[in-house]
Amino acid sequence: MENNYLLGIDVGTSAVKTVLFDESGTVKASAALAYPLYQPQNGWAEQRPEDWRDAVFVTIREVVEHSGLNPYEIKGIGISGQMHGLVMLDEKGEVIRPSIIWCDQRTAEEVEDMLKLMPREKWIAITANPPLTGWTAAKILWVRKHEPENYARCRHILLPKDYIRYVLTGVFATEVSDASGMQLLDVPARNWSEEVLQALDIDRRLLGDVYESCEVTGTLTRKAAERTGLTAETKVVGGAGDNAAAAVGTGVVRDGTAFTTIGTSGVVFAHSSKVAIDPEGRVHTCCCAVPGAWHVMGVTQGAGLSLKWFKDQFCQDYSARAEKEGKDVYDWINRDVKEAPAGSDRLIYLPYLMGERTPHLDPDCRGVFFGLSAIHQRKHLLRAVMEGVAYSLCDCNEILQEMGIKVDGMMACGGGGKSPVWRQMLADLYRCPVKTVRQEEGPALGAAILAGVGCGIYPDVETACDRLMEEEDSLGPVTENVLVYERYHRLYQKLYRSLQEDFKELGRL
Q1: Spatial contact of 86 and 151, defined as CB atoms under 8 Å apart
Q2: Choice among 162, 242, 364, 428 that is catalytic
Q3: Residue 460 appears among annotated catalytic residues
Q4: What is the pTM of this model?
Q5: What is the pLDDT of residues 442-453, one digit of tens each?
Q6: I want to staple 10 with a disulfide (CB 3.0 to 4.6 A). Which of 80, 103, 169, 194 is the partner?
Q7: pLDDT one-digit tens code per residue, 29-52
């Protein structure tokens, strides 16, 4: 019997991770390679697409060689990646400038320009979302305004994972889930919006064709096959944006299912078989990786980023101790956080290191510790950071409930989702069990499943998830914590309203 293997590639903000799976979802080999993020100015965020490209080639070859497989057994590749990033290529397919990535907040003026071209309600009706600073359309306008020479050279506009597709296949294409985050897609119709492109004066020829996530978009070029150790017959499917891929990788592919992921950003994501749009634009509606379905998600900009920032700045001794003992630094952090009480002894953290999306859509707000006292120790600050992220994610979940999206179970994934301390906070705030699945690869597994559907190994996404997903752990709410967090969460929400104008004044200083 022929063996079938699938590659899932996740082009993340901090690293590329490439994972090889067999068709039962078992990991056969994996590799990761990190790269830097550049912040030329406060609120800006850029990366070099060439870094992603090099990391993809290195990790694929490492995985293929480590597996010892015949390359012909590796049938397909699915690509997942950070959403919203702007990659601009010239007529030779070369990168013109560093990619302006998802968390960049430089485009406030361009968002205002977009609202002058079409009313907010029209944007929401077509793209399912109001104009947003972090999304791709505003970045395109920023480059056109501030770097006209670069815009004049541009012949192709791609998203991060779709640049990797081009590198691997020579094909300029995208798929519905990632394209939904560009602000150029007619989300209900699942194709480019001619009305939006005309309003923004963006040439449709700059954009690739749009596919469903499990459709085959091409095969490897001979050059890519040589660099990776694969064959030119290896298929590459549409893939998905990181969160849409994570949904597949955790089995969130039917109504009533949802997940929370805590990566660099944090997301609450719910599947919907119908288009559900928040008229206030507080959460994002996108096409999901299941053909003919959508998802609704709220986003916390500085989720895992908040904890990593605190660790890097104030926990060097933890890092040194963890390295000496061969342990994960976050194990030490979790241990200390458990010693502090729910509510962190009246300390609240606002996780706005990179502005905020849900529910505020405010690029000007910034991080805050509120209630600092001489009694507070580092463990209190660490717990407050984790709780502040959980409060923000709870805001997202409450909006989904307002929209009538019913969730029967919440999965947890991402690096922060591995923390039982963080999962308990979420269960207490959501007031429902928070579960994990045995499979830990999230976006990479989801991308590989999509490749399996495209290669005919699985009949459809739902069947594949039924076959592969196994629940591992479940944490339910603790009554006394629920009562504490209810009060703290309401104060947390009040703090943003109290500081909203002060954030804007701070931004003008």
Answers
A1: no
A2: 242
A3: no
A4: 0.85
A5: 899 999 999 999
A6: 80
A7: 999 999 999 999 988 999 999 999
